[in-house]
Amino acid sequence: MILDHYRAPRNRGELPTPPAIKSEGKNPVCGDELTLYVEVEDSNVKDAKIMGSGCSISMASASMMTKAIIGKSVEEARETIKAFKAMMDIHEQTLETEQSVDQDKAKTDLGELEALTGVVKFPVRIKCATLAFNTLANALDTSEGKDAGSIATTE
Ligand code: ZN
């Protein structure tokens, strides 16, 4: 699933700004860089595109992320960010305690994004996987008129 998205990334390209919002993200640890374009209309994510380069995890995560949020409301997109980060945390804890965590408790269905759970076995890769989501959070803040600051980083 991850390799499939890496080899054939979805929603690559640019969107005209405005109306789209451009948000940049960097993961200095790995050297991943991505530029996210999000078009929000009536509190819905109308379209999203990704540019940038990085490792397979960061690029696959970004590809899956766009697929997961296009057509959703901004609120749902924020829930997806929250759920994805929670998934990364849960698995980190699971590894530490070696106890299984009931994943069904997560209320947001992450769909194919759950393919990225394997990433948490490699803590340095968690940043690669969450980069797209930090960048998205910045873009959504900007769309709501908040000053999100310059560039999203994983640091
Ligand atoms: Zn990376």
CATH T-level topology:
Sufe protein. Chain: A
- Beta content comes to 15-25%
Distinct ligands: zinc ion
CATH class: Alpha Beta
Contiguous low-pLDDT stretches (5 residues minimum) are 99-105
Task: Summarize this structure as a short list of keywords or feature phrases.
Sufe protein. Chain: A, four-stranded mixed beta sheet, binds zinc ion, 155 residues, 4 helices, alpha+beta
Layout of helices and strands:
Layout: H1 2-7, E1 21-27, E2 32-41, E3 44-53, H2 56-69, H3 74-97, H4 123-143, E4 152-153
Parallel strand pairs: 1-4
Antiparallel strand pairs: 1-2, 2-3
Helix pairs in contact: 2-4, 3-4
This protein binds zinc ion.
3D structure, described in words:
Helices cover 42% and strands 19% of the residues. It is α+β, with helices and mostly antiparallel strands. It has one domain (2-144): Sufe protein. Chain: A (Alpha-Beta Complex). Strands 3-2-1-4 form a 4-stranded mixed beta sheet, covered by helices on one side. A hairpin with a 2-residue loop joins strand 2 (32-41) and strand 3 (44-53). The radius of gyration is 15 Å and the shape is globular. The two termini are 27 Å apart. The site of zinc ion has 8 residues, from helix 2.
